[in-house]
């Protein structure tokens, strides 16, 4: 057997050192290696080939349980979004509008749907409010995580669809023995935003296996936007006393122009409340004859809330004509006419009212997510080195969602026709029965289901002078389905919210795949992967991957990967029907006075898959003259074509106005600029092109009788283009942040039973996409410490955003004058915890 080089060992020990609570098998490998014993083969994220060494041609970041705890992360999305390789605008705990409590990851800022999330190397079911295209990371409790591995190149040739930008593989705690209880909590220095988690882990060994069980409960409380003094007050044209034709009634009963808007930040969250209940279990059981059975079960219930300002009712009222029944229309008196309130060409006038008399919109979700996975693995013949495996994974997600204090637009219009006075006085409404007659609690339900059968064979084919040629082949069947049923009032188009159709659909895919690792020389190794997927929806797709590693010296390894990838259209993209959206648009014909124009967003059953190309090239350097130091530098580029997207609606309107008949037809624009049926359908016309450089430095050393660990991660974004627009170095409330420089630095010192750590996170200066103005950089500082009282008790505490940095201002920020998904909008936060192990 070839002995690993100093470089390979350094990489391996460096990875293992960063993972304090890793699997027993991996730790055993390290010990066996150190002792010079034979080493069993292990699985590495990004490959199905069992290998001795943990280094591959693909760049992988490993985040261990100890690091997660030290930095005070309480959710998976929070720890992932802190990584420099993330970008864009992934939804999470700070997304108050439109996320339904879901938390996602956005690797390279390419979209959460283009990052594949695995649990113990196997797929997770998409989850959320129904017919979702990404995994809800809330379904995975932090308490069960041993480590997180982030593969930062395209991996469709290994894992199939969705792995365009990379893979996040969450490895759970297993092979645990004993009983452990963890309690931790935190709150802001403003005495709000409290959060806490209590978890228990129990495991025991038998003569032939291990069984590990866990449970966790976590709760997060809300933070109101207006409770932060840096928040820009909102200024909505929808005001509580109502407006008619753009005019409002003053205290003297005169119709005048509106002067002040409504501050919606007093009703909206920066941090959304949530409760989560989780149960999980792992088992490993030898069945004899070199057969091992593995399995894991996960169940998570999430109850979450968001809150927005009371419903902005936007209603077009029919104006009475001569002889018309006044109970079916709005009568304009002379004061209204004198004030300039007149009907439009359709004989209507616009009425707007912020429904404070009813109450804020309170969104609620009750989701249940199950995942059960079981597998068998064994050896065909211990002398041949051939191993087989077979597994089945089932995932199910169901959700009940609702919105309290919604408004029925039809009933509200009828109520105004029946009696104008309560609605047009400009005073608060006191008739609760009248308010109850136009309001309702919106109810919806949805879900996702997944079945995956997989089988494979791996081992060594034959020996070359430099070593054995290793391989993995296999086949997989996967079935995905999803549905979402909006409230019947919304489906009927009678709500003040946009109309939406139900979603219901499914597809299946049969896949075959193979990988080969070839040691051309003692220093040069090639990795080759090929995959074929046959979908019931669009047909087939083939992807490949070629990787090379070259050990130039004992200190330096060069690596590169070229790969193709794809993303299959999701259930919602294929079968979503119409989903209305009020977009800010300009009507060049002048027919639409309201800047928010209804756009019918439709799906398409004939969508084709997205296609991608990726390329990475870099080096791993572990200088022999500096013991304990290693650094990596990797260049990366991703290109996506045929991306599933929507055309630019404003550009389509402008083209139609300029005489382009095809644009009028594409966007369903009627004669003379009739936008009443304005439609924008999903289509395969989008593209992305992004590139950058990752740099990592890790250094472990002893000084001043202390053990030190220094780490620095930098991502420099060279380019990010999407659909013909350059987002490099910009930030926007709709698209998020594409900072040219992101940097994470940490230094940890410890001795025997205590450690202290300082961590900072830097987000570079960007341009405001809407205005071109400079948006300031920000540097966050975190401190933490842990102390082992004895073998059974450990205490930890820390503070995040120690200097209470304010988020940078963004002109069209998604909330509060900034982008909460990018910047810390909570402020200084304290956290502490205790671990008891028996």
UniProtKB/TrEMBL annotation:
Residues 54-167 form the TonB-dependent receptor plug domain. Residues 354-801 form the TonB-dependent receptor-like beta-barrel domain. SUPFAM superfamilies: Porins. GO terms for cellular component: cell outer membrane. Pfam families: Plug (PF07715), TonB_dep_Rec_b-barrel (PF00593). Residues 1-25 form the signal peptide. It is found in: Cell outer membrane. It is a multi-pass membrane protein. Belongs to the TonB-dependent receptor family. PANTHER family: PTHR47234, TONB-DEPENDENT RECEPTOR. This is TonB-dependent receptor. It comes from Shewanella pneumatophori.
């Amino acid at each position: 057997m070839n002995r690993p080089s100093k470089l390979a060992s350094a990489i391996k020990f460096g990875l293992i050192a960063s993972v304090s609570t890793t699997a027993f098998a991996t730790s055993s490998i390290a010990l066996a290696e150190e002792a010079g014993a034979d080493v069993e083969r292990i699985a590495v994220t990004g490959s199905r080939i069992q290998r001795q060494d943990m280094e591959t041609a693909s760049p992988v970041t490993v985040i261990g349980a100890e690091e997660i705890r030290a930095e005070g992360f309480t959710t998976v999305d929070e720890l992932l979004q802190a990584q420099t390789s993330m970008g864009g605008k992934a939804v999470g705990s700070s997304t108050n509008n439109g996320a339904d409590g879901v938390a996602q990851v956005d690797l390279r800022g390419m979209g959460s749907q283009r990052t594949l999330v695995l649990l113990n190397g196997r797929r997770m079911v998409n989850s959320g409010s129904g017919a979702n295209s990404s995994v809800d990371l809330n379904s995975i409790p932090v308490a069960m995580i041993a480590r997180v591995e982030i593969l930062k190149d395209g991996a469709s040739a290994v894992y199939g669809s969705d792995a365009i930008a990379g893979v996040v593989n969450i490895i759970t705690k297993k092979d645990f023995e004993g009983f452990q209880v963890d309690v931790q909590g935190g709150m802001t220095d403003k005495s709000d935003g409290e959060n806490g988690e209590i978890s228990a882990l129990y495991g025991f060994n038998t003569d032939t296996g291990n069984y590990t069980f866990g449970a966790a409960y976590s709760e997060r409380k809300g933070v109101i936007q207006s409770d932060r003094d840096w928040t820009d007050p909102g200024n909505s044209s929808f005001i509580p006393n109502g407006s008619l034709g753009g005019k409002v009634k003053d205290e003297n009963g005169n119709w005048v122009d509106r002067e002040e808007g409504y501050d919606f930040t007093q009703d909206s969250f920066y941090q959304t409340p949530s409760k989560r209940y989780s149960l999980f279990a792992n088992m490993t059981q030898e069945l004899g004859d070199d057969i091992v059975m593995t399995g894991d079960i996960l169940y998570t219930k999430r109850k979450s809330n968001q809150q927005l300002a009371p419903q902005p009712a936007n209603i077009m009222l029919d104006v009475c004509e001569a002889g018309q029944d006044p109970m079916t229309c709005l009568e304009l008196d002379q004061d209204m006419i004198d004030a300039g309130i007149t009907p439009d060409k359709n004989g209507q006038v616009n009425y707007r009212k912020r429904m404070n008399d009813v109450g804020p919109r309170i969104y609620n979700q009750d989701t249940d997510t199950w995942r059960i996975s079981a597998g068998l693995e064994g050896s065909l013949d211990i002398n041949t080195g051939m191993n087989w495996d077979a597994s089945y994974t089932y995932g199910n997600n169901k959700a009940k969602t609702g919105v309290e204090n919604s408004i029925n637009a039809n009933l509200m219009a009828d109520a105004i026709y029946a009696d104008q006075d309560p609605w047009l006085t400009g005073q608060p409404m006191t008739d609760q029965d009248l308010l109850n007659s136009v309001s309702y609690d919106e109810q919806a339900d949805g879900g996702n289901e997944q079945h995956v059968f997989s089988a494979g064979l791996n081992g060594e084919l034959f020996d070359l002078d430099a070593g054995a040629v290793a391989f993995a082949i296999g086949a997989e069947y996967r079935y995905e389905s999803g549905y979402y049923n909006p409230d019947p009032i919304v489906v009927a188009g009678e709500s003040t919210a946009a109309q939406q159709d139900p979603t219901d659909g499914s597809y299946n895919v049969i896949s075959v795949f193979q990988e080969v690792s070839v040691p051309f020389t003692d220093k040069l190794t090639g990795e080759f992967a090929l995959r074929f997927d046959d979908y019931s929806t669009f047909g087939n797709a083939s992807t490949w991957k070629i990787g090379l590693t070259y050990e130039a010296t004992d200190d330096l390894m060069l690596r590169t990967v070229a790969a193709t990838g794809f993303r299959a259209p999701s259930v919602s993209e294929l079968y979503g029907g119409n989903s209305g959206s009020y977009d800010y648009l300009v009507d060049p014909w002048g027919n639409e006075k309201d800047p928010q124009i209804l756009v019918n967003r439709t799906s398409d059953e004939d969508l084709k898959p997205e296609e991608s190309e990726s390329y990475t090239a870099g080096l791993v350097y572990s200088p022999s003259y500096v013991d304990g130091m290693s650094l990596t530098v990797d260049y990366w580029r991703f290109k996506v074509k045929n991306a599933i997207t929507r055309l630019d609606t404003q550009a389509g309107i402008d083209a139609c106005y300029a005489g382009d008949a095809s644009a009028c037809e594409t966007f369903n624009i009627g004669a003379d600029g009739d936008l009443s049926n304005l439609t924008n359908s999903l289509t395969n016309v989008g593209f992305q092109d992004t590139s950058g450089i990752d740099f990592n430095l890790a250094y472990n050393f002893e000084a001043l009788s202390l053990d030190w660990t220094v780490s620095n991660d930098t991502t420099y974004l060279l380019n990010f283009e999407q659909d013909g627009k350059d987002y490099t170095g910009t930030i926007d409330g709709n698209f998020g942040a594409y900072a040219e420089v992101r940097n994470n630095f940490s230094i940890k010192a410890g001795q025997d039973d205590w450690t202290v750590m300082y961590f900072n996170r830097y987000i570079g200066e960007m341009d405001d996409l809407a205005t071109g103005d400079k948006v300031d950089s920000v540097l966050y500082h975190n401190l933490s410490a842990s102390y082992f009282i004895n073998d059974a008790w450990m205490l930890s505490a820390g503070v995040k955003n120690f200097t209470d940095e304010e988020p940078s201002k963004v002109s069209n920020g998604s909330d509060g004058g900034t982008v909460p998904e990018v910047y810390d909008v909570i402020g200084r936060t304290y956290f502490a915890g205790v671990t008891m192990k028996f």
